[in-house]
Specification:
The chain has a four-stranded antiparallel β-sheet, covered by helices on one side. The longest helix is centred in the middle third of the chain and has 35 residues. It is built from nine helices and four strands.
């Protein structure tokens, strides 16, 4: 599809878009132009677009159908290894057969399944803690948290060329409505933060230099970059404190998992 506003081509796949958009483009002919009204759902990832309606003017340039190749050793070798020079050996850990590819995919799915189960365990623990915790804190803490969320929203809107007034108008709410909407989330965040801080202090949970080094190596590996490059970036951006806080949160959550009766179904 081609947007008249920026005259750029965009590839879209039916089924991966908002329902209004997919419904509008289905049945279009090549060369046809039309304007589609789309309404973003209230749970849309981009918070500043939730509940808003946009008009998209499109021109259909071409239609393509996906072609799924047959899974053969030859296709796998060509796709994942590429052309191999005569006399040169293929690395032992290379994915050069359909069976090896299935094994890699199976391992990745199993790892993802364990991560999802682990995340669910942690979510259950957080919900239980919030349910059973009564923490008193001054209203100004809630107000500050709300202000921070609104400021974040303003910055996101600004990058889209919108203002807070535009957002409030599109979502049919006042600034008071927005603050009240954020209030419950803010109270939950503050309560959880204070409870975790209390546990950290009581249990003497600390972050060591070795913990930070391990986290940097893990992050570098997940992003497929050398650990030295990741470490240099962290030093340059002064992100050590952010890494330390992330590790501290992991350690306290690990403590809670081990201390709870909730079991990870993936283990």
């Amino acid at each position: 599809a081609k947007s008249e506003e920026n005259a750029k081509r965009h590839v879209v796949k039916v089924g991966d878009n908002l329902p209004d958009f997919d419904k509008g483009i289905v049945g279009m002919s090549i060369g046809e132009e039309k304007t589609i009204e789309v309404t973003y759902p209230e749970d849309h990832d981009a918070e500043d677009l939730r509940g808003t309606t946009a008009s998209l003017h499109l021109k259909l340039i071409e239609i393509n159908e996906p072609h799924i190749p047959e899974l053969t050793d030859e296709w796998v070798k060509k796709t994942f290894v590429g052309e191999v020079e005569e006399g040169k050996e293929i690395p032992a850990d290379a994915v050069d057969t359909a069976e090896k590819l299935r094994g890699r995919i199976r391992a990745a799915l199993e790892k993802a399944s364990v991560q999802v189960a682990d995340a669910q365990v942690r979510n259950d623990i957080v919900a239980k803690i919030l349910e059973n915790s009564k923490v008193d804190f001054p209203q100004i803490m809630t107000d500050d948290e709300i202000d921070e969320r609104i400021n974040d929203l303003i910055q996101k809107l600004k990058r889209r060329g919108l203002t807070l007034d535009d957002y409030l108008k599109h979502t049919n709410q006042s600034i008071e409505d927005l603050r009240e909407k954020y209030a419950e989330e803010a109270r939950r965040t503050i309560t959880m933060s204070l409870v975790l801080h209390n546990i950290i202090e009581r249990e003497g949970i600390k972050v060591t230099d070795e913990d930070i080094d391990a986290e940097i190596r893990s992050t570098a590996e997940s992003r497929n970059v050398p650990a030295e490059t990741m470490r240099a970036y962290i030093d340059r951006t002064d992100s050590v404190s952010s890494i330390s806080n992330r590790v501290l949160h992991k350690k306290v959550m690990d403590f809670l998992v081990n201390a709870s009766n909730i079991k990870n179904v993936g283990q």
